[in-house]
Amino acid sequence: MSSVIRHIELLAPAKDYLSAVDAIDCGADAVYIGAGKFGARYAATNSIEDIKKVIDYAHRFGVKVYATLNTILFDNELEQAKAQAEALVAIGVDALIIQDMAYCRMGLQVPLHASTQTACSTVEQVEFFERVGFARAILERNLSGAQIAQISNNTSIELEAFIHGAICVCHSGRCFLSRSTSERSGNRGQCSQPCRLPYDLTDGNGAIYIKGKHLLSVCDLDLSTRVGQMLDAGVNSFKIEGRLKDRTYLRNIVSYYRRLIDDNIAARKDCCRASVGTSYIEFSPNPAKSFTRGGSIYLFDGKSAGVASFDTPKALGERIGRVAKVIGNRFIIDSQTALATGDGICFISDGEALGTNINGCEANIITPNSIKGIKVGTEIFRNYDRLFSASVEKSNIRRAIDAKIDITFTQSDITATATDCSGISATVCTQYCSDEAKDVQKAENTIRTQMSKSGQTIFNISEVVVNNTRFAPSSLLAQLRRELLEALECKRIAGYKYGAPFVENSQAKYYTCSITEQENVVNTLARSFYQDHGVTNITEGLDLKSSTVGYRVMVTDYCIRREIGQCLLKKPTIKGELYLERGRKKYKLTFDCAHCQMSIIDIK
Predict the structure, then answer these.
(1) What secondary structure letter does DSSP report for 356?
(2) Do 105 and 71 belong to one domain?
(3) pTM (2 decimals)?
(4) CA-CA distance, 418 to 424, in Å (whole number)?
(5) 443-450 contacts: CB < 8 A, separation 24 or more?
(6) Which domain holds residue 271?
(7) In this structure, are 384 and 422 located in the same domain?
(8) What is the pLDDT of residues 258-301, one digit of tens each?
C-alpha cells in the first residue's frame, strides 16, 4: 500500500475579492477567479490589483489561487492574452486554468491546469496532458465514478472533479449550441445557455412528440453522498461550480462541503487537507436552501434516466408540500410548514414554473402575494428562505490557524515563541527587568490571558506555556504578542511554496493524428503545438466559421431517448429520426448506442 499522503483540496469559485474572502473564510483550500479577459464567465472578471489582494489574503492560510483563462484565442488576441497571463504570474497566482494550447507556447513560469473545456474524459486525453507537462486535469462532468477511477489508475497527474453546481449537458468545450443561434460562443466565454430553453421534440416533418419542454436542461450536480467514492477513485480537488452565484450561496455551499470533506479525510490515513485553518461560522449549512435545479448525482453511478428538469431550468428549491385547499387569496398546505413571511415559493402550473412571495403565514394557512396558478394538488417549493438567508448574511465568519505560544522570563528579558499547526515558528525577545511574581498563579493567569488574545489576526492561540513566571505589565505583554503574531504571519508568507512551472515535453505524442473542427484550434500557436506533438491533420475550429449549419454542435452522454424511456436498445415506440425545433432553428439528433452518446446537428 502506498505511503504517499494525498493533499485533498476543496476548490471554490470567486466572482470577486469579497466572494473569495468568503470562500476562504468558510474553508476553501483553493479558489478560482477570472481576470479581465479570456475567462469562460464573461460576467465574472477582475483587475490584476484585485486578484493580487485575493492572493495576499489566501496565501496566509496556504490557500491557492487559480486564474481562469479558459477560452480559445484568435491570432489577434495572442499578444494581449500573453501579457495578461504574465501579469497574473507576476502577482503570484498558483496556476492558470487554460483551454487553448497557445498558452503552452508563451513561456509562462507557472503550473498549467487543463480546463474541463479540453474535454478531459478519457485515459488517452489525460495521459497526454500529463506527459506534455500539465500539473492537473479538470475532468468532464459526464464521467462516472468508474471512469474517474480508470483515469486515476492509469495516470499520476492531479485530478480535479466537479462536486456541486450547474452541469454543462454537453462535453465541455465541444458545445457550439450558443454559437449556432448567435455570435455568442461558449468557447469565448459568452454562452447564451440555449440548452436551458424549451424545444419541441419532432420527427422533422410536422409530428410533435413533446412540445415546449426544456429537453436539454439537466438538474444541478450534487455529489455530496459520493465524496468518499470520489476520494477512493483518485480525485484530488473537489470543485464547486458557480462564479456568478451570490455570496450567500457561496458561504452556505463551501461551509457544507468543508465539513463533509473533512469527515471523509479523517476516515482515510492517506489523505490530508491541502490548507490550514479552522472556519468558525454562526449558521448551519444546508445546500437545499441555496439555488438548485434539483440535486442529482447525474451519471456518476452510470447512465440512467431521471437527470433532466423538463418543466423548468429555474431553481424550484426545497419541497414544502401540496396545496390541500384554496380559500380566496389564501391556501392551506398539507404539511407542518416552516414557511415565513418574506419567503419565496415556486410551483408548476400548466407545465410552467411560476413563483410568488409569501405575505403572511398562520400555521399551515398561507397568504401569497399572488394566488394565480395555485390550486388544490399544486406542489409547493420554497426557493428563497428569508430567515435562513438572513442568518447566513449576518453570520460572523472567521478562519483561524491554531498556534501555541511558549513564553520564558528571565531577570533581564522576555522571550516568546509562537508555533502554528504547520510547525512554522517565530520568536520575539524584548528586554525587561522583571520582578519575581508575588502571586505566581495570578501572574501566570494574567500572562496566559494576555498572550491568548489573537484579536483580528489569522491565529487562534490554543495553548500558552509559561516558563519561570515573573511579573510583567499587561501592556508590555500585549505589545509582545502583537509583534510575535506579526512575525509568525510574515514567516508563513515567506515560506509559501509554489508548484513547478509548466515545461513542455516535446516528446509527448498526441493521442490522435487528426483534429476536427470540434477541438477548437483557431490560432497559429495552438496549431504549431499540435503539429509538434504528432498531429498531421488539423481542421480549423468551428468558431472561425461563419455558420454552424451542417456541423455537430453538441455531443453529450445525456440522452433524450433514455430520459423519456425510448432507448433504441429497448424496443422504443418512437422510431425513426428525431429533431429538436425552436422557432426557425432545427437540430437533428443522432445516437451512438455503442458509446451511449447523443449528438446534436445544426441543420437549419
Answers:
(1) E
(2) yes
(3) 0.95
(4) 8
(5) 443/469, 443/470, 443/471, 444/469, 446/474, 446/477, 447/407, 447/472, 447/477, 450/474, 450/477, 450/478, 450/481
(6) 6-167+223-283
(7) no
(8) 999 999 999 999 999 999 999 999 999 999 999 888 889 999 99
